[in-house]
């Protein structure tokens, strides 16, 4: 294989920060991963990350938006959602008790995904969830 040839495919989508865009993000993910055994897990992850961006950051305010990136290779599916920032703190994975009404989303994503990474910058936050499609890659089975 040539060193500059990649077998990974990458898609990107930017959506306005309206609640109805979460369903569009899910459909976009489902369409790209049609036929994949990981499509439902990926759809749920994108739904949660998109909703978090809209609810907890400037993405859900006037003229806000969020960006989705989806990378697919033989070894993994990586789903990233980047928000517009404006939250006092970066997203973090928390384990909540059964009575908690909020704060369970990233915990749920961390159970479904094999790896979750949060990157903070001056312009916002990017949460990336990875699903390892190749059993030799490691991680836990979903």
Automatic annotation (TrEMBL):
GO terms for molecular function: ATP binding. Pfam families: HATPase_c_2 (PF13581). Residues 19-129 form the Histidine kinase/HSP90-like ATPase domain. SUPFAM superfamilies: ATPase domain of HSP90 chaperone/DNA topoisomerase II/histidine kinase. Gene3D superfamilies: Histidine kinase-like ATPase, C-terminal domain. Keywords: ATP-binding, Kinase, Nucleotide-binding, Serine/threonine-protein kinase, Transferase. This is ATP-binding protein. It comes from Streptomyces doebereineriae.
């Amino acid at each position: 294989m040539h060193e500059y040839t990649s077998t990974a495919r990458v898609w990107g989508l930017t959506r306005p920060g309206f609640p109805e865009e979460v369903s569009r993000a899910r459909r976009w993910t489902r369409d790209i991963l049609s036929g994949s055994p990981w499509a439902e897990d990926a759809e749920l992850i994108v739904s949660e990350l998109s909703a978090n961006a809209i609810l907890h950051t400037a993405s859900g305010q006037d003229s806000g938006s969020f960006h989705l990136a989806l990378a697919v290779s033989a070894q993994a599916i990586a789903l990233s959602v980047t928000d517009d920032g404006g939250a006092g703190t970066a997203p973090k994975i928390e384990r909540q008790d059964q009575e908690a009404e909020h704060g369970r989303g990233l915990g749920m994503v961390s159970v479904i995904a094999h790896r979750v990474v949060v990157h903070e910058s001056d312009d916002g936050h990017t949460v990336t969830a990875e699903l390892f499609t190749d059993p030799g890659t490691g991680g836990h089975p979903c």
